[in-house]
Design a protein that fits this description.
Strand content: 15-25%
Structural class: alpha+beta
CATH topology of the largest domain: Alpha-Beta Plaits
Number of helices: 9
CATH superfamily of the largest domain: Nucleotide cyclase, GGDEF domain
Number of strands: 8
Helix content: 25-40%
Oligomer: single chain
Order of helices and strands: HHHEHHEEHHEEHEHEE
CATH class of the largest domain: Alpha Beta
CATH architecture of the largest domain: 2-Layer Sandwich
Radius of gyration: 19 Å
Distance between the termini: 18 Å
Shape: globular
């Protein structure tokens, strides 16, 4: 699935019914005043990143959303055998394919953290089926990375390694907004974020693990999947996860 290029900001139109042009001649006046496509999702504008104070009159909100984490396996070991330029090329492929998959399903690519990415679904673009969209994005991400396996093997050369991606997904209420004082960070925090990150850490290369909450909401797309208990760091009891 290829993400379509929206002509107007989906977030501003959904939340305020304001048509902020992102592309074409009508976008020129908006760019003059600093409104341009967001780096987190090119179908949103930079105003969406600032709407907390200006529109919602708050620095953070509680929102029902889905969090997806994806991590590039074998990155640490490969970084010891490849040059920085070669590892940079590997990361370029990983980030590009993650972004394409996340944006194709209207997710927000919120963070790139070394060899991992974090995405948010259902804000600021609202989606009634955001858990399902995250699952589909995770599958698309795995397909995209697999499709470039030959290119990755060429970059790895004699290192002999083979890269894979582990994905973890959870959904529920979380806090999203601007955190910090001296350095403000627009991100999501809460148990949902932590659980998605731990599920990702438990996933094997090429695997997607989702929580009970995601399974309940996206059951139709997870037909036949059964849960297994996983011991996740920071959790007192085993957590049931489903392979997607």
């Amino acid at each position: 699935m290829t993400a379509s290029q929206a002509l107007i900001c989906k977030g501003c139109w959904q939340n305020m019914r304001v048509p902020i042009a992102l592309r074409g001649p009508l976008s020129v006046p908006f760019r003059v005043v600093g409104l341009r496509p967001s780096r987190m999702n090119p179908n949103l504008c930079t105003f969406c990143e600032l709407m907390f104070k200006r529109i919602m009159k708050a620095t953070k909100i509680t929102v029902d959303a889905t969090i997806l984490f994806a991590d590039l396996r074998a990155y640490t070991s490969l970084s010891q055998s490849l040059s920085p330029a070669e590892m940079g090329s590997v990361l370029d492929i990983f980030y590009d394919e993650c972004a394409a998959a996340i944006w194709a399903f209207d997710g927000l690519l919120n963070k790139t953290i070394g060899d991992a990415v974090m995405a948010v679904f259902n804000f600021p673009i609202k989606q009634a089926d955001h858990a399902r969209q995250a699952v589909l994005a995770g599958r698309d991400l795995q397909r995209r990375v697999a499709a470039r396996r030959d290119e990755l093997k060429a970059l790895l050369g004699e290192s002999g390694g083979e890269l894979g991606v582990g994905v973890g997904i959870d959904c529920g209420e979380l806090s999203f907004g601007e955190f910090g004082r001296s350095h403000k960070d627009l991100t999501a925090i809460g148990t949902v974020v932590n659980t998605a990150a731990r599920a990702q850490a438990a996933a094997t290369p090429g695997e997607i693990l989702v929580t009970e909450a995601v399974y309940t909401r996206a059951r139709a797309d997870l037909d036949g999947s059964t849960s297994k208990p996983y011991t996740l760091k920071g959790f007192e009891h085993p957590v049931p996860l489903y392979a997607a």
